[in-house]
Known about the structure:
The structure is a homodimer.
Chain A: H1 15-19, H2 29-34, H3 38-42, E1 43-49, E2 54-56, E3 64-70, E4 73-78, E5 84-90, E6 111-114, E7 118-124, H4 125-131, H5 136-162, H6 165-182, E8 190-192, H7 197-204, H8 208-220, E9 224-227, E10 230-233, H9 236-243
Antiparallel strand pairs in A: 1-7, 2-6, 3-7, 4-5, 4-6, 8-10, 9-10
Chain A binds a DNA duplex through residues 164-165, 196-198, 206-210, 212-213, 215-216.
Amino acid sequence: MEDILSPDNAGASPAECVACALAQYTVYSPTLSADPIGLANVRKETRKYGSQKTILREGEVPDSISTLKSGWAFRFGRLPNGRRQIYSFLIPGDIVTPESLWRTPYPLPFSIKALNRVELCSFNRRAFRAALSTSESQEQRLARMAQGYFGNIYRRFADLGRRSAGGRLAQLILEFERRLRHRGLTRGRTFDFPLRQDHLADALGLAPEYTSRTLMTFRKEGLIQLERQQLTILNIEALREIAEDE
Amino acid sequence: MEDILSPDNAGASPAECVACALAQYTVYSPTLSADPIGLANVRKETRKYGSQKTILREGEVPDSISTLKSGWAFRFGRLPNGRRQIYSFLIPGDIVTPESLWRTPYPLPFSIKALNRVELCSFNRRAFRAALSTSESQEQRLARMAQGYFGNIYRRFADLGRRSAGGRLAQLILEFERRLRHRGLTRGRTFDFPLRQDHLADALGLAPEYTSRTLMTFRKEGLIQLERQQLTILNIEALREIAEDE
DNA sequence: CGAATGTTTGAGAGACGTCAACCGGTGTGG
DNA sequence: CCACACCGGTTGACGTCTCTCAAACATTCG
């Protein structure tokens, strides 16, 4: 027996989800617009995490489904020798563990940490799953989300094995631009970029010093501008060419 | 309305699945032993592919679920510049697209090819899914399969970014040994190894020449023996040490 | 048996890593 | 309010891992 409405729900007013600026960009927007308060009633609580705090630890079995209301996060693994590989980044509107949407949850093969100050909306897993199984357009949207989500992961996998440092960096920047634009989180070609260089390094599989150099090359060639956590793409065609590996 | 029993089923006798030597090692073994002929009735056909033939192409939406009855396969992506990255290998008993077990299928972000002569058993997707939703032990087995499956993929992701050539190779060999042993496909520390060196290279993110050299080092140091598609691990402790990255 | 395909090996080049110093911002405490 | 430490980023010098090119060698297949 599962408590669909957990007590923590007290703080969440049903209207909140509907009013959320991100609502129309999330996977569950069809469900939300079909039944404006249904989803909100399934919401358990919101949670806050400070920068670099652990949201989920490797081996945990997620028992709820959360979305990022604000802030960024990243998923990573650690090798026996202590080195870290970042698998993917989560931006506002993303589901933290899309895997939980499918079938029985299983222990996570990675940890998840907050990149900056993060606010999470968490939902009852089964109720959320059920709410997202009602309409055809919702199913299609889920399928497209999964396609994009896993597509990005496999592309970064291939980048690691088969692209140069510059190619990988360009590819990652373009991925951010695309995803953030679809969420309405860009201003022209400018967007928030809360990663530190060691995050970039661990995502791209590079030494931090070399990441700095590669970034500097991009700046000197007028491809991007990056200061105070704001990234602007100055020459997107050139960036694409580098990403395609000239 | 979906035709559970497609006409192609004609060739498949219901007893075959039960008699299959791999049956007890597959994900669906609980279902199979609970209802020995139920699954076989859901089977549509068996299919054969020659070495290096394409089983599924990137972008296709798998409409059935297949398992490898014999032979190996691999999943890979291709970069705009033509380079190839292999994401994972499939061995006998594996489900070709475990992703199809979850929810609505979506276009594959990779292609799948046969490594050697392959025989596939394909099942009706929805009927297979339904048949695997009946028992608790079946759910648990599915969860453990998913854990292992995605765990391996993420580990290889991390290997690409954060391990040396030798570390990656050792890790991959150990993964094969583990998986094949669990399927009863090893003889001592010896097992079939149908990969060519360019497959290894594309899986490890290395140049083929350097793959050859790394392999040669392993041989000269008495770690492995590899000839005529048979691999023997001669010194597993040393191999593990290299894999852990000393 | 020959041709095509896969593997091994050598020599040299290049990309990326490591070590170390320095620089600039930020926060903290006296 | 300044001093200082700390953290993250930048830069230089140098080392090395891995790639590329090229040729020889081995193996499979027609």
